[in-house]
Amino acid sequence: MVSPQVLRVASALLALVTSSIALGVAPGQIKNFVTFGDSYTDSSYYPSADGGYQWPTWAAEYGPFNLYGLARSGATCSNLLTYRPFPPIMEWQIPAYLNETYNGTLALNPQETIYTIWIGTNDLGVSALLTGSDTPGVSIVPVRQCAVDVLKRLYESGARNFIMQSIIPLDLTILYSSNSYPSRYWTAQRNTTEWSVFMRELVRAGNQITLLELEALAPTLPGAHIASFDSYGFFTDVYNHPGNYLNGTAPLNVTGCINSCVYALNESTSDPGDCTVAEGSAQDSFMWYDELHFSQQTARVLAREIATVMSGQFSPWATWLS
């Protein structure tokens, strides 16, 4: 006869195993993925902001998955928080997705579909939080709450599988580094060291706020599977260990870029600038395509990791919260 104590232990172990199995999507479950975000994810045009195919195009091939790209270059989470004249997630991308869903143009099985959300670069950057050109009273807190609200709105519409990608270490981009120069993105006077330090703090705080919000939210959404993808850690590792990721024919380069355009102080960005462009296979030696965007090679290795997550396999950069 089995004692009650043994039964309780066995029951507890079974509950732990069952809970562990329930985390994340199952191998082979996902057939489709829908993207929301900015130029880091926008696959709607070619060449994209990285000079070639953006990472979702590669991830769709690696899966294989069916890609439905709603991300648009220049976007913020909400123009009510940080305004830019581009299609934001809340006021354009989600309505576009819901319109196609409700009118039957887009019919996706929620169990076979995963949604990626990667936003924040433009919210935190120039003409937004970094330079103070935002709606009065707006801070990093509501900006990152907005990203979590995107997930909640999609869940309410029937979506069940999600990947929330954290903000990359923007202080490692050329635009926001302490050694930055006037570029196509900003030619006005600035203290580059101050910018770099401020951006580093914005990113770290924003990512922590998002993670805490997600950890609190996950248990309240029955049937949802939410992964937190550590883009910050991934890009930091590419920067620190480029030999594990870059494979071009030129010396590996994480501080310069493929398409570099230097401007004079206060020069109009309608001018061509003094540009240097790496060609051919040398491009795969670079982490960055230009002063703000990552390269094709970085996009490919990022796509490989996210495709791994969507396939229900282990990635060191993803943590399933539910």
TrEMBL record:
Record-given protein name: Carbohydrate esterase family 16 protein
Signal peptide segment: 1-22
Native source species: Boletus reticuloceps
PANTHER family: GDSL LIPASE/ACYLHYDROLASE FAMILY PROTEIN (AFU_ORTHOLOGUE AFUA_4G14700), GDSL LIPASE_ACYLHYDROLASE FAMILY PROTEIN (AFU_ORTHOLOGUE AFUA_4G14700)
Cell cycle listed as a keyword: no
Keyword Signal: yes
Keywords: Hydrolase, Signal
Molecular functions per Gene Ontology: hydrolase activity, acting on ester bonds
